[in-house]
Design a protein that fits this description.
- Helix content is 80%, strand content 0%.
- It is mostly helical.
Length: 141
């Protein structure tokens, strides 16, 4: 299966990797809100933040392995620097998602899962560009 994924264009691999990370995010939101009853305005915001953070960890390793499989596979300190660039790139998307989530929940009472989905879609567009340019440098031919 891994060879099949690597044969797909980068944009499709980005969507697949992001889809898996999104599944992690959504599953965690359901766990936090429905099962752990984090259903007040403040607790839903916290649940959203935690789900995004854990989903981001999954996304980094999936994108590194599948989406940008032609990028340099750093180790040690260089890997930590790459993770730092990834996290820095996420700040823009995460900040906008948190703000968007709060506004859509508080003012428009958008269902929390739809709210999460809209935020993920908007952030994905920005994330692809930032990951491609700042995080996953290609090997030189």
């Amino acid at each position: 299966m891994e060879q099949w994924i690597r044969s797909l264009p980068r944009g499709i691999r980005f969507c697949l990797s992001g889809g898996v990370a999104t599944g992690v995010n959504v599953a965690l939101m359901i766990l936090f809100v429905e099962w752990l009853k984090m259903d007040s305005f403040i607790l839903k915001g916290l649940a959203n933040f935690l789900a995004m953070a854990i989903g981001a960890i999954a996304a980094f390793f999936l994108h590194r392995a599948w989406t940008w499989d032609d990028s340099t596979k750093y180790r040690g300190v260089a890997l930590l620097q790459q993770i730092a660039r990834f996290v820095s790139s996420l700040v823009v998307g995460v900040g906008s998602r948190i703000g968007m989530f709060a506004v859509m929940d508080y003012y428009f009472h958008i269902a929390y899962l739809l709210n999460v989905a809209v935020g993920i879609l908007c952030a994905a567009i920005v994330d692809y560009y930032l990951y491609d340019r700042l995080v996953f440098a290609r090997r030189k031919a």
